[in-house]
């Protein structure tokens, strides 16, 4: 549902203050006073300021004038959170639909008058609700209902921001979407993820960073490679945002100087020949060569050196990608033992710890789903689809980063399975710039390196959201 209303607390959210004063009242004691029944009565407007100071003075053994001095100094420390106010103003101005902004604060009328005298852009608010004026305070439900009635806001379309978890819980209990304020950046990210269109924001991120969607490893080294560029291209069908070097036959994982140090590999070649290069003659010639590189079990090897000797390795994700190439050209039967191994890995959940070259269980499931989608071979579908559907259902709701969640949702979507649980977990992970965070996809265990690409995570997150939208239509 579209967000139409934002409600913000004032103290410790839009205004910050210090309990440190030059009086004999310590910061801890000052905060304790704010939690007394007397103070609550004062916030509701049921007793005067003088009466409040007198009562808390008696309770904590301070002269009322000392209490008054302490709160006067605390009020002098009030500072507007200009960063958050500016962001709210911008959000309201750029919103495609009317966005109502309200404040809702536990503050007495005398203290609110002091607050209003502070430099701040009060024009961002369509209305300010105070406990002193309403006669109710948070977290009492009556205060929330009063604001909803007065503004005619729809609870499900309303976001409430407060630094107190009790207040947010009450807001959620009446149907509002609640955000607990921790810091300004966290709140802005959460608000943008609720107010903005995640697909449009994600696409804007990809366009803004087109031709510069580079990969990064866990040593914080940025590098150019073909593999994730091909995956981004496949996910978006937008050649303008990616940068990869076309290869007529075999493909290298890396681009630039690094490609001179590493031989062409089966994984990237299989991806390149199914995503970018559809020259059938070249594809068949390369597949003929690949058939020579099976191990003693008849399984295609994940050798780094395509068509050259090297230490034999097998990886079920690499196998799935090579099988995708073969099945897309009607030659899947030539790698029957490789197919059987991939099936056994799926059957016995051997992928749960990740694979040699791929980090998460979802990587295997994602590329297996890609294998299913590359061909209409009835035997392939009959053997893999029911089991894949069973295995992906087992993963719904499991912990995972943004890429794992997106992969899981995309696989579910390809099989006609709804996955709202993981979609709810994925959406809040969108960053302020519209992209999703860097997540590891592949690894080189002998070197202790992992690598990922924000562009790929973002492209797949967009695909995941669209997949669930497609099942709803």
Describe the protein:
The protein starts with a strand and ends with a helix. It has helices spanning about 25-35, 35-45, 50-60, 65-75, 80-95, 110-115, 130-135, 140-150, 165-175, 185-195, 200-210, 225-235, 260, 265-275, 280-290, 315-330, 335-345, 360-375, 380-395, 400-415, 420-425, 455-470; strands at about 5-10, 15, 80, 100-105, 125-130, 160, 175-180, 215, 220-225, 440-445, 450. The protein is α/β, with parallel strands linked by helices and about 475 residues long. It contains 22 helices and eleven strands. The radius of gyration is 29 Å and the shape is elongated. The strands form three sheets. A five-stranded parallel beta sheet has the order 5-4-1-6-7, sandwiched between helices. α2 packs antiparallel against α3, α12 runs parallel beside α14 (about 265-275) and α14 (about 265-275) packs parallel to α16 (about 315-330). The model has no long low-confidence stretch (mean pLDDT about 95). Helices cover about 50% and strands about 10% of the residues.
